[in-house]
Amino acid sequence: MIKKLSRYVGEYKKYAVITPVLVTLEALMEIFIPLLMAQLIDKGIDAGNMGEITKYGGVLLGAAFLAMTFGVLAGKTAPMASAGFAKNLRQAMYYKVQEFSFANIDKFSTGSIVTRLTTDVTNVQQAFQMIIRITVRAPGMLIFALIAAFSVNHRLSLVFLAVLPVLGLGMFSIINKVYPLFNKIFRTYDKLNNVVQENLYAVRVVKSFNRQEHENEKFGKVSGTIYKDFSKAEKTMSFVMPLMQACMYTCMLLISWIGARMIVAGGNDAAMGLTTGQLMSMITYTMQILMSLMMISMIFAMMTMAKASGERIVELLDEESEIVNPENPVMEVRDGSIDFVNTGFRYSSKSDEEGSASDGDSAAKKVLEGINLHIASGMTVGIIGATGSSKSSLVQLIPRLYDVSEGAVKVGGVDVRDYDIETLRNQVAMVLQKNVLFSGTIKENLRWGSEHATDEEMRHACKVACADEFIEKFEDGYDTYIEQGGTNVSGGQKQRLCIARALLKKPKILILDDSTSAVDMKTDAMIRRAFADELPDTTKIIIAQRISSVQDSDMIIVMDDGHVSGCGTHAELMETSEIYREVYESQNRKGGEGLE
């Protein structure tokens, strides 16, 4: 994990290298200062020698100034390295998500991805800064201070060796209990983000059904779980400080007591016992050693959190898209003809035969099976079927949003898996069931279809999609600002803008997945008539619930439970397809929808 994450330090590696050097120099200066203090006391103050006091005092000030300088510089380079590392890591994760197929996105919830990009990266960033600064300083200070303490008096320094095992065992026990809790907490954060995102996205539905209390209860339940687990983890971690303080004060008491006895026994003779200056330096080293141990305990606590976050980040970065370019991709789509050749599809990447799921597992169940269709270039094709009959799944195989599980889908006579993905998708414009507009002007939204579209091209696309009529009524016209998700336009207006956006791609295949459901029948008919006049060479596939939206199509496909139940013109299906006939008659009885 560490090896994989360290690659993203990138261009900030120089700061990551300089920081430990500066921290080491700072630690050396701080170790040197107690030795100077001992000399100042023994040779200057106790001896009453003003010259020695001046000499050691000047050197002491110089060492303190250097320690401060190294510390300030390290405090500047460490954040630059960690912030740069976090930037690269977030960027790599975001770019990775852009490469995901729909199947990959289905694996990670939106809330989970957001948590990994925010909370998890922040934890790893803080841990990285701690590694290059405190993780170098604390062990360095500990080792240097121990060496210096033993050089002053090795017998008195044995106190540290008695305390360290107690501290180490206690720390290991605490960390071992806390790590599983942090893992659980971060998974619960994913759920919390999902709840918040879902609530904000559907806030109008929540308010219209007066379900605020239900949403509050759902949020409170997840938030309460985080509080409970985090409190438990923090309570366990709270034993670190008392343990550290107990060890620290025990060492100080023992060193003070034993050191004082050695001074009295030696008559202030360094050869036989201990001097006052040496005892002062030993007490200072005791503080430094135990402060280093305290910092190490903080490192362990932070690393525990960071390890859980790092594993989640690496999991996302290691995820490979199931849809990739072939070795020698086809770079041109000849025409808009489409062939389904014995096509089968399931959302699970593993088959039932491999034992990935039981027969009752919906993820492993075939949603499409034995589909054989030929759609000539330029045809208008309608698709109808009950909810859950796999209409959307069928058309999502054309631009390779998912890959087939069996058989093949061909566009322009070439298997879609042999195309360059960008080339294929540039020639297939798809307006999904869930129409999405982004915050920005109408022009900015339309240019998602063609980045360099002219004003005239945008106006023409909107005219074909019957969107020009309401855009011109806006005070700012095409510069009207669209709120996030298109909340300041109606459902029908949103659908027409999305259709216009798709038309700007000038595709060879246009797929409308129930994309005129929110427009009135007159506008729906105008859009279809404009398609016939303006896009004669474009293959048009229209998924609809209303027979009137597809009955003039060159071919109508009737889907039923993942199979093609019927295929033909309106007149042919009225004779041969019971499902089609029942839908047509039902809609006529409900007010003549089919008698447009």
How does this structure look, described?
By secondary structure, this protein is α/β, with parallel strands linked by helices. Helix content is 61%, strand content 11%. The chain is built from 20 helices and twelve strands. The protein has a six-stranded mixed sheet. Strands 2-1-4-5 form a four-stranded antiparallel sheet, with no helix packed on it. Strand 4 (406-411) and strand 5 (414-415) form a beta hairpin. The chain is elongated, with a radius of gyration of 36 Å. The two termini are 63 Å apart. The relative contact order is 0.08.
Concise account of the structure shown:
This protein has 596 residues and is an alpha/beta fold. It is 61% helix and 11% strand.
